[in-house]
Amino acid sequence: MPANPNKLSQFWQELKRRKVIHVIVVYVTVSIVLIGLVADVFEPLGLPDGTPLLVIIILAVGFPVAIIISWIFDITVKGIKKTEPLEAITEGNDLHSTKEKTVLSEKSIIVLPFENISPDPDQEYFSDGLTEEIITDLSHIHDLLVISRSSAMTFKGAKKKIREIASDVNVRYVLEGSVRKAGNNLRIIAQLIDARNDTHLWAEKYNGTLEDIFEIQERVSRSIADALKIKLSSSEKVKMHQRPIDNAFAYDCFKRAYPEIISMTKERIDFGLKLLQKGLEVTGENAVIYAGMANAYMQYANNGFETEENMTKSEEFLEKALNLDPELPEAHLALGMIRILKDGEAHSGIAHFKRALTSNPDDPEIMLYLALLYTFVGQNEAAQQLVDNITRIDPINPMSDAVRGWVHFFSGRYEMAVDPLFAAYKLTPESPMHQFFKALILLYNDRADEAYDFINEVVDESSTNIWTLVTLFIKHSIKRDKDKIASLLTPEFVAQIQIDLQHSYHIATIYSYLEEKEQALKWLENAVNQGFINYPLLAETDPFLENIRSEERFKKLMERVKYQWENFEV
Questions:
Q1: Of 245, 309, 348, 532, whose CB count within 10 A is highest?
Q2: pTM
Q3: Is pLDDT above 90 for 341?
Q4: Do residues 220 and 304 both lie within one domain?
Q5: What is the pLDDT of residues 503-516, one digit of tens each?
């Protein structure tokens, strides 16, 4: 899809979006039929000789009127409504125009990615790791708002002024620095800047070896607290001093392994596991390294590599991690995912996410997963509270936009979900998940033709990613192409959908949209069995389920869903 379509292309797309092309085709077709009919019957009916000409004139006058009306108004399942202008519902030029800025906190900071000035460019992982560790240390300070790693990393390599960056994330202070790592030797420079007047509050150089890295991180964090006149509590001091991996070599292995493990390629995950194993050989049993190994095996499973075997291995390493540290947030987050993906236990997944958040209350990733799970069980108010926190801490992460859109979607606010879901897609257009939600929200806003064209333009049909396959399911459903729908329903696809409550719900709604009631009810029952109990959405709000709401089987299912929903405790 071209990044900057020309004016003619944009106008053509707008005509299609407003259904003007559809109206023109229908109007011309009906007019031709009507003119032919009048020409055949006006003499037998004794009508005046000028009748055919009069009909042609009336139709000609009505043609521009029909075009104007179709441009301004749209007929939807909710009645006639005014069509929103494109700029009000699409991405726009400002990626963050859909967000309302919160009041600037006086004690707020972003840690910019430390620049790697090492002789070896492969040391990039180390400078990124240092950035992340300082963010983690600072996040333990209750009186300081710290922008998350994912938002901070979006400024890596950016040539923006400090004041602009601070404005983008709505903070007052900015920490920036550089790292030089040559062999075992380190040189770290850090400086704290007040973005309000672009003044340097504090700057320091640190020279040492890899073994000094933990002390340097703590000194940087304490210096920032001193510069901002924040008095640290005893518990905050303890947390900043804690080091889950206290051996420098093992710590280095762990930091090198992380980008390999999340790469989604088997060869790199293999390498990441080898690095973790090296670290384990030095430290002996270590909860964080065990959790990293569990994450690696989960990544194997999520990418279709010996799914059951690797999911079991992931559980084994998580058990080792939790035996050493029962409250380790990384372990509970991973275990919550397993309980949902493998066992279909949404309640158990939520319990683990909550436990992880208790140990790490400012982690936006944990908040994101918990917010999404809350929408699945119909606890939308609790989900919204988490979304508000995520927006403050992690404002430039596409997942922040996505989760805001999801909360609107699963609350039945489909028009309000458009902006954040479009923004999430624009930030990461290559993401199959964001492609899916953009197509889905178009469909739910009565823009099926646009959804179909969008999928045609951007989706890689050769991909086996589950999000891509469900997106193609939408595409073929829009055209009622049953043969292509059937071709998607391979045993592997069906098996993946069956263990996922969210995908099962979406498949159920699309089948209901197709008026295939038996399939819709089967998949909806599966979604409920997996823990999808958002009663208001299922029983009342989702327009696509209207086709099956009168079925006795649906009513009986809703009795169970209502009971579970009403008795669910946040």
A1: 532
A2: 0.72
A3: no
A4: no
A5: 999 999 999 999 99
**How many domains are contained in the chain?**
3
Instruction: Fill in the DSSP letter of residue 180.
Output: E
DSSP letter assigned to residue 103 = P
Q: Is residue 260 packed enough to be buried (19+ CB in 10 Å), middle (13-18) or exposed (0-12)?
A: buried
Mean local confidence (pLDDT), 360-389: 91
Residue 231 placed within a domain: yes
Residue 1 reports pLDDT greater than 60: no
Q: Using the predicted structure, report yes or no on whether residue 277 has a pLDDT greater than 80.
A: yes
Please give the pLDDT value at position 32: 84
Please check whether residues 311 and 261 belong to one and the same domain: yes
Q: Which of 45-54, 106-115, 281-290, 393-402 has the lowest mean pLDDT?
A: 45-54
Q: How far apart are CA 523 and CA 532, in angstroms?
A: 11
Burial of 97 (0-12, 13-18, 19+ CB in 10 A): exposed
Q: Quickly count: other Cβ atoms within 10 Å of residue 105's Cβ.
A: 15
Domain end position, chosen among 198, 214, 243: 243
Which tokens hold the place of 341? 């993906």
- The DSSP call for residue 540 is I
Judgement on whether residues 217 and 327 belong to the same structural domain of the protein:
no
Instruction: Write down how long the chain is.
Output: 570
Cβ-based burial of 556 (10 A; exposed 0-12, middle 13-18, buried ≥19): exposed
Beta strand ranges found along 199-303 (DSSP E) = 199-209
Distances (CA, A) of 336 to 358, 389, 482: 14, 21, 36
Residue 106 corresponds to which tokens in the numbers above? 């006086």
Lowest-confidence segment of 315-319, 425-429, 452-456 by average pLDDT: 425-429
Provide CB contacts within 8 A for 234, sequence distance 6+.
none
Nearest to 99 by CA among 489, 549, 422, 503: 422
Calculate the alpha carbon distances from 222 to 237, 432, 567 in Å.
9, 42, 46
Query: Helix count (H) and strand count (E) of the chain?
Result: 28, 8
Residue 354 · residue 386 · CB < 8 Å:
no
pLDDT digits (tens, 9 = 90+) for 99-145: 555 566 789 999 999 999 998 888 888 888 889 889 988 998 989 99
Are residue 228 and residue 114 in the same domain, yes or no?
A: yes
Residue 355's pLDDT is what?
Answer: 93
508 found inside a domain? no
Task: Give the Å distances, CA to CA, from 558 to 236, 319, 450.
Answer: 48, 37, 33
DSSP per-residue string spanning 112-157? PPPEE-SSSGGGHHHHHHHHHHHHHHHHT-TT-EE--HHHHGGGTT
User: Among the three residues 83, 99, 134, which one is the final residue of a domain in this structure?
Assistant: 83
Please list, in sequence order, all residues whose beta carbon lies within 8 angstroms of the beta carbon of residue 509, skipping any fewer than 6 positions away. Answer: 520, 542, 544, 545
Distances (CA, A) of 58 to 39, 51, 165, 431, 455: 15, 11, 60, 51, 40
Measured in degrees and rounded to the nearest 5, phi and psi for residue 263 equal -75, -20
Structural domain for 331, as ranges: 251-361
Backbone angles phi, psi at 515, to 5 degrees: 65, 30
